[in-house]
Automatic annotation (TrEMBL):
Superkingdom: Bacteria
Organismal lineage: Bacteria, Pseudomonadati, Pseudomonadota, Gammaproteobacteria, Oceanospirillales
Residue ranges of domain ER-bound oxygenase mpaB/mpaB'/Rubber oxygenase catalytic in the record: 137-355
Organism: Alcanivorax nanhaiticus
Name under which the protein is recorded: ER-bound oxygenase mpaB/mpaB'/Rubber oxygenase catalytic domain-containing protein
Pfam families: MPAB_Lcp_cat
Residues annotated as transmembrane: none
Length: 415
């Protein structure tokens, strides 16, 4: 593998988080993906080796910058990063080598980068409006908790109820920044947010690796494989969730969303060897994530319940409390519909008939989508409405929750 992989801290065979791709229940999933891909997605022995190594690999460039933080006066490292992001690395006098190496990578424009696809991927993300938030929160994020080991970094923050809202705000800020048309250009907010989140992950990784409670059999915290899985959550899993609601996308639109997140993954330090290049690659990678996912555990339930309960918090007055309970039930119903009852039970979600609401409304959405496709100017109008909705709601959430959107780890919460 490239320099993205570090010297392994232990034998990959000692990992206890790797599921068996040949375990009962995967045959039907394998057959489905084989039909969709027109090839067998089952990981080979060589690919399993890469998967295990990726689970034991951090982000050397970002990790070196975080190590640099510790050699400088408090806050100095972050100021250097901010200046390099705002004014360029050349604006720094004699910058540290770790910072030079990081910016050499992020300032390098990949030969495969297609700005037209970036633009289209952003437009698709805007067009779906608040449905995108529903899918990201109640399918992508919620489903990510099913892998007990992968979710451990969140558990180690403690105060799960408080941190659930913090993560929603941070994820919303990050998603809005990187999906804004033009936002990934050098110096724009999407580009800067991707790098800041990358460094926040490296800081969390450093803190957890120093913790006596971290078990390396879980793999590296926020490792390469889990980071690639997060890119899938925002791309093909995101698209799958929207299609389950009745949204329609052309092949070029789907490829555009995947391309957008390929570049975000590049900026966030995901090794290009495991970073999917197109929709087919992404679906193959998704199967391999599902095939090797570890067991759920008690932390899966704790995180699932905390995320679901976020809808009930900060509700003042009878009307607001009623609306909170309704939102909680509808969101839980969507998770149960899209993830399945077995997964929802592991996440501690209530059994509710609202899971039938979502497939029932899908035909209506399909009809609206067909009308959109046939109506000139409809895409532009929906983009405007989507931008207005999410840019109007987000500042209110930040103010209401007094949330921090600077992507800075809260050290005092780590146990």
């Amino acid at each position: 593998m490239t320099a993205m992989l570090q010297k392994l801290p232990l034998d990959p065979a000692s990992l206890n988080r790797v599921g068996d791709p040949a375990r009962p229940g995967m045959n039907k999933v394998r057959a489905l993906f084989k039909w969709m891909l027109d090839s067998d997605p089952q990981p080979t022995e060589g690919q399993m080796k890469v998967i295990r190594e990726s689970m034991l690999s951090g982000d050397p460039l970002a990790d070196a910058v975080v190590a640099m933080y510790g050699q400088l006066p408090a806050g100095k490292g972050r100021k250097l990063v901010d200046q390099a992001l705002e004014q360029g690395i050349d604006s720094l006098h004699n910058p540290p080598q770790a910072l030079l190496a990081l910016f050499r990578q992020i300032d390098h424009e990949p030969i495969w980068l297609d700005r037209e696809l970036l633009r289209l991927g952003c437009e698709v993300s805007y067009r779906v409006g608040m449905s995108g938030e529903l899918v990201l929160r109640n399918m992508s994020l919620m489903g990510g908790y099913l892998a007990g080991a992968a979710a451990k970094p969140l558990v180690f923050t403690g105060q799960l109820d408080r941190m659930a809202n913090r993560r929603l705000i941070e994820t919303g800020k990050f998603w809005m920044d990187v999906t804004t048309p033009g936002g990934l250009e050098r110096g724009e907010e999407g580009f800067k947010s991707a790098v800041r989140v990358r460094l926040m992950h490296a800081q969390v990784r450093s803190m957890l690796l120093k913790s006596d409670s971290w078990d390396m059999r879980w793999g590296y915290p926020l490792n390469q494989w889990d980071s690639m899985g997060t890119i899938l959550e925002f791309s093909v899993i995101f698209l799958t969730g929207l299609r389950s609601l009745g949204y329609l996308f052309s092949r070029r639109e789907r490829e555009a969303v995947v391309h957008l997140w390929r570049y975000v993954g590049y900026l966030m330090g995901v090794d290009e060897r495991i970073l999917p290049a197109n929709e087919k690659d992404s679906m193959r990678a998704l199967y391999q994530v599902m095939a090797t996912i570890g067991e759920s555990d008690d932390d899966t339930r704790r995180l699932g319940e905390a995320l679901a309960n976020a809808s009930l918090q900060n509700r003042d007055g009878g009307v607001q409390q009623y609306l909170g309970r309704l939102e909680y039930t509808l969101r839980a119903g969507y998770s149960r519909y899209i993830l399945g009852d077995e997964a929802a039970d592991k996440l501690g979600l209530p059994r509710t008939l609202t899971k039938y609401f979502w497939p029932a409304q899908a035909p209506v959405r399909v009809g609206l989508e067909l009308a959109r496709i046939a109506t000139p100017g409809a895409n532009k109008a929906l983009m405007w409405l989507g931008e207005k909705a999410r840019k109007g709601q987000f500042p209110r959430q930040v103010k209401k929750l007094k949330a921090d959107t600077t992507f800075t780890p809260v050290k005092k919460l780590f146990r």
